[in-house]
Amino acid sequence: MIPRYTRPEMAEIWSPASKFRIWFEIEAHALDAMAALGKVPEEAARTVWEKGGAATFDVDRIDEIEREVKHDVIAFLTHLSEIVGPEARFVHQGMTSSDVLDTCLNVQLVRAADLLLADVDAVLAALESRALEHKYTPSIGRSHGIHAEPTTFGLKLAGHYAAFARCRARLEAARAEVATCAISGAVGTFANIDPRVEEHVAKAMGLKPETVSTQVIPRDRHAMYFATLGVVASSIENLATEIRHLQRTEVLEAEEYFSAGQKGSSAMPHKRNPVLTENLTGLARLVRSAVTPALENVALWHERDISHSSVERGIGPDATVHLDFALRRLAGVVEKLVVYPDAMQRNLDRLGGLVHSQRVLLALTQAGVSREDAYSLVQRNAMPVWRGEGQFLDLLKKDPDVSAKLTDAELEALFDLDYHTRNVDTVFARVFDA
Amino acid sequence: MIPRYTRPEMAEIWSPASKFRIWFEIEAHALDAMAALGKVPEEAARTVWEKGGAATFDVDRIDEIEREVKHDVIAFLTHLSEIVGPEARFVHQGMTSSDVLDTCLNVQLVRAADLLLADVDAVLAALESRALEHKYTPSIGRSHGIHAEPTTFGLKLAGHYAAFARCRARLEAARAEVATCAISGAVGTFANIDPRVEEHVAKAMGLKPETVSTQVIPRDRHAMYFATLGVVASSIENLATEIRHLQRTEVLEAEEYFSAGQKGSSAMPHKRNPVLTENLTGLARLVRSAVTPALENVALWHERDISHSSVERGIGPDATVHLDFALRRLAGVVEKLVVYPDAMQRNLDRLGGLVHSQRVLLALTQAGVSREDAYSLVQRNAMPVWRGEGQFLDLLKKDPDVSAKLTDAELEALFDLDYHTRNVDTVFARVFDA
Amino acid sequence: MIPRYTRPEMAEIWSPASKFRIWFEIEAHALDAMAALGKVPEEAARTVWEKGGAATFDVDRIDEIEREVKHDVIAFLTHLSEIVGPEARFVHQGMTSSDVLDTCLNVQLVRAADLLLADVDAVLAALESRALEHKYTPSIGRSHGIHAEPTTFGLKLAGHYAAFARCRARLEAARAEVATCAISGAVGTFANIDPRVEEHVAKAMGLKPETVSTQVIPRDRHAMYFATLGVVASSIENLATEIRHLQRTEVLEAEEYFSAGQKGSSAMPHKRNPVLTENLTGLARLVRSAVTPALENVALWHERDISHSSVERGIGPDATVHLDFALRRLAGVVEKLVVYPDAMQRNLDRLGGLVHSQRVLLALTQAGVSREDAYSLVQRNAMPVWRGEGQFLDLLKKDPDVSAKLTDAELEALFDLDYHTRNVDTVFARVFDA
Amino acid sequence: MIPRYTRPEMAEIWSPASKFRIWFEIEAHALDAMAALGKVPEEAARTVWEKGGAATFDVDRIDEIEREVKHDVIAFLTHLSEIVGPEARFVHQGMTSSDVLDTCLNVQLVRAADLLLADVDAVLAALESRALEHKYTPSIGRSHGIHAEPTTFGLKLAGHYAAFARCRARLEAARAEVATCAISGAVGTFANIDPRVEEHVAKAMGLKPETVSTQVIPRDRHAMYFATLGVVASSIENLATEIRHLQRTEVLEAEEYFSAGQKGSSAMPHKRNPVLTENLTGLARLVRSAVTPALENVALWHERDISHSSVERGIGPDATVHLDFALRRLAGVVEKLVVYPDAMQRNLDRLGGLVHSQRVLLALTQAGVSREDAYSLVQRNAMPVWRGEGQFLDLLKKDPDVSAKLTDAELEALFDLDYHTRNVDTVFARVFDA
């Protein structure tokens, strides 16, 4: 995880301290269940909770032991026994390291998903607020970067809101994918552990028992999780790209908020760079880079191999941390986005009314002109406008063949922006009232 | 799509003929809705359905027109008007090409998903049948490719069943992602078309209206769809890898079915290569290769650019066709897999009982031996077995320090395979009774 | 390969007919070498060349045989013996199918590379010609999409020329990577074939003997090849993105050539969409999608598994065909690009001279003003310009604190575009005289 | 970078301290060149070198300034002026931040490449030594995981040596790709800086001047660099996969070195897991994950956008650090690999001589038996062997139809392993004498 793109809340989930705390809870809950089943003394479970629960695990000490025994879970258990004393011998009985490691990873991914869901909520809130604010702010719609027909800035934002609402649902599904627990032993047969222990731990940790674990929790779950993060990242890139376009010098319909103190702003007042959204574009690439290795992690050999582990040490923290940061940054960008409705109107007007040519064509056809003739009428009035010789509406009014079919009032109506926004309410209702 | 990895059912969905049929239906349903709204004569809609519905669209003719006008939808509409006559002028009014193209793509992806769901069902049926057949067939569980503890072959298959059951649910969700329709005009404002037209077409085509379309249907939906195919492909690779491992000469616990006629089988009877599952491994890579471009397709410029189109012309057919083929091939491989329980037992016995060392260790501990001493007892009996000097059980029985703690009967019980399969019922119930 | 993005020259390389012709040549050259070594009768080699060389292999017949024997090379050899007669029994002796398949694949990839090199040459020629044409055409340089300092349009193109010159060198290296031949038998030990046969075939086919083949030619070579195609695709995307930006309505400094016949051009004269470069953007994604599966193909099991084969049946033709098409399309776009120097100048002037603020700042500093004061002087004259209240140069001239340090002539010199193009010659010499 | 997969040498390259040192050197060398050109006082350059050269830059202080000015290079320059005093005002004149940032990144990537080259050399040395040691150690060659024909363990390793020798050459090329320097100003026109400054800095830093930089150094160079790392990673995965296969319980022809102290080794002597090579498999996935974002970084907008930056903050250190670690780990695994020639021989003999069936078939054909009859003869003797009823050679000797054509001595010769190793010298000469 890159420090400057890291928020402490998410980093905390992946800290050694958090990890050891989760390991402890898994072991201690398992012990509870074993005690309830009469497999170990209830006293042992109580002691472990008391002493271990109160302890702060010494990460350096555990690292030191690991360097010697070359096994992370054994290192932890050794340290735990240093804290708990002889009762520690009941801990982990019949369990395998992966029971702890995989269940812990899923707890971390679930917690990460919870933060990401809150992040998406922040993005949604910002988008909704700005979409409502600019519900009727006219703005040119562009296909292929070329002016097409009018839309509103609010509609643009509503579309992104809808995309992030979908992302939210996908994140919920991704969270459910990895919200499973395995306490099933060396090859998943529960040979040395009662399945009820797994059920107890699962419940206690907010998870469900994994249907079939084979030492490991199957990695198609994690593949789906990271693939989902990749899709969310792409939706971020989509909105970031929109803002970058709107901010470019020739368009300048909106700008990222630029704080007063930021160096260089006023000697070159034009040089306000959309660096936040460019950064988001890059972060989207980084988050997406987790998808392929996560897919490659699925085909482990037989009941497990450990190739997935190094991958997850990388993409687990990195993808969640960077996505968390990106979503928060995006929420801030949207909230504080400086919008220039005048510039939007100016750009709309820029082509002398040619953006209405399609409507004029349709109106002529509906007024009985053949498609071919209508096309030719539009064309002969559009070309001078394109060369900068007049406004489209004026020329049409003056063209006798046009005015024979459409009155001035009818023509003016064709240039009415309100026409294009008639159905904004309908779309907004779909987005925000659903 | 690679011909040898193509099934006609899926290829058909992507044929020009299917595409033009879907285009026609979209246009004709839209016309119905416009007629119902009084925008166009009912007669026109009727005529279009009658003449167009009966027609076989001439793909070559449409291609010919397209070469001239350089626009696929206009080429189709021109050809349609050749078939339908003057009534054709009411077709497509107020619509934009993408309304047809994007809705059609989604219809195709939905149909492809339906085939894929049926494919997964075939895989599930094969897995369930073989899992039940081998529910109690003992087989060594392996972690890191090394013998760990016993499991059953049925449990292995049950795990893959559970994975494909998850894939099924994911495909359902992916299908819902793309089951949307857009008939919203040049920039998605419904400027020239009533939203009720979209509602009608959506319903008629088995889709839902897209919440916000901006000329195009947002590509995060398709990204999620293809990402899901990638996850399914990885689950195929996972099972394929298992079978490839089981078939290797030194393991040979199972073999792909090898038809009598297949060249080279009997002069080199050992040379039965797991070529089908190797092929599935490759196909999984191919299908997954659609994921990244689909993610890159999300960030279109403003209301749309057409960069997504060439990508989808590739990955649309390719990923669905190859995944369809792969799933069917996999179902066949599983159905006809030749399983060798004797070989499984032979491999289980191969290490002279060392796979039970973990249980012996645990039993000694539970019998009051310290962990350290237990370890040392196991070790001194395990090493000769590892050097090929005897069976583990025999040596343990002969070791006075061991027999002081565990009777022969107790020791024999520790080598009982049934112990490891006690919970198979529980796991199967989770998988198949859920 | 998608028909509309396929040129016949490249498709031909991948046709079954070409493949069988290459297979024949490999077998016949190998036979020559065996005859020269006295392993087979010279007569046999002569007959095979005569009859086989004259034959057109019947693809349908070979397919028919393959359906029966389920082995492509055996099917071909059977068909060859139908053509050649009994002498065919000497063909393929001591060889393994992969000797033919892998050597053929490399011949195809080498030929594809040759076409791609010619394609890049076409791109280079177009870029050089247009770069020289616009060597001194002033144009605003933009960082972050925001006006920065002046550059020339020729410099932009020269930069892309340099990138494609690098791509050319990379393609040469990629070609060399795969220009190897393997005729080394079942596990690459030359057990049943003399290494001199391989040397002969290699030379005859324009290849080098593979250092170590293990039934297959190692796939790191192909991974490097496809990775290189991915980089070339990204350079295409880079130039395509530049053009798409230049064509957007608000910028409109250049446009893709729009043929007179293209539908819809003149009724909506503004609606000339950069569809070719958008298409190139998509094709770049498609070509790049070959990189990951090619990387995944490297780790074959032991001396070979066949998982790479299905991948290569896809990416081999697809990546080369689409890249070939994309490069040719790009060459055409550059050649015929409609460039608007007036618009470039207009955009340059758009900010009232603020793009020169950096130079003014520097000049003031060099004239002895402290950095802080200089900044403040620039700022107080820049802000009114930014608000649309005057030209920067005029305001500076009128500012007594500025004119105390810089004369009008000095100030004017700071706004001289030639200043920015002084070193264009130097850069062009680096690019075109290297 | 993941701490446990990080070597200090490589991490050091990416440390803030190294970065600021490189920044300083770039600035100071540029100052030298400016002084030589008479643009700044020589005294200034001398002072900067003296004071700055002796200084240890205070990373925390620079971070503190950056938090205020939100610009990393300005923060550094501010800190530098704190150290150097008023002479610092001559530093960075006419330069742009990217001149420093991009040149620094390339210096870091070049240094990383140098470490990686040394790493590959370590891998090559280990492979050569072990290949020579086992040049004639017989071992079964396997295609599709199935026994094919004999090879030697040395040949296997020689093949991997050849692959890493190719990787070395590719890394050299990748190093050259990024060994460029840009000191060309805001949009690469050298508007405010003399191109000779760039030449001087380039030479001083061991780089070449970038042909055309546009504020940034073009990212196709970096894409090629990271793509090359991806290929190297795949070659690591290839060798790691081989070792994992050789270590699996049923094969056990080689094992990763297992240190005496490693927990759990002797109570379960069979449970020596190939965790290092599994780890390398995962690391290969991680390193490869840099390729796609690096390819996506190429298409920056106009003269630059900053989206590449966050990507490179991630993949720059991560991909080089993890690859460096992986190569060193691989070298160690190969050096210390425990090889079991007896087990290789046992596996070779496992099929009762059937691996020679192909040779017998050929010999019969050469002895005048028709291909069909030869096949049938081989088949009828192979099947009993396959069922475990005898050795292939014995049965062939007893078959009168076989012995009519081949004497016992001739048959025995067909089972001679030396036959398969006749050309080992030839191959080794290609690999090691080239």
Could you please describe the fold and organization of this structure?
4 copies of one chain form a homotetramer. Chain A is mainly alpha-helical. Chain A has 3 domains: 3-90, Fumarase/aspartase (N-terminal domain) (Fumarase C, Chain B, domain 1), CATH 1.10.275; 97-347, Fumarase/aspartase (Central domain) (Fumarase C, Chain A, domain 2, Up-down Bundle), CATH 1.20.200.10; 354-414, Orthogonal Bundle (Ribonucleotide Reductase Protein R1, domain 1), CATH 1.10.40. Helix content of chain A is 65%, strand content 5%. Chain A contains 20 helices and 6 strands. In chain A, the strands form 3 sheets. A two-stranded antiparallel ribbon of chain A has the order 1-2. In chain A, strands 3-4 form a two-stranded parallel ribbon. In chain A, strand 3 (180-181), helix 8 and strand 4 (208-209) form a beta-alpha-beta unit. In chain A, helix 7 (153-178) runs parallel beside helix 20 (424-432) and helix 14 (357-366) runs antiparallel to helix 15 (371-386). The longest helix of chain A has 37 residues, at 97-133. Chain A is elongated, with a radius of gyration of 30 Å. The mean pLDDT of chain A is 95.
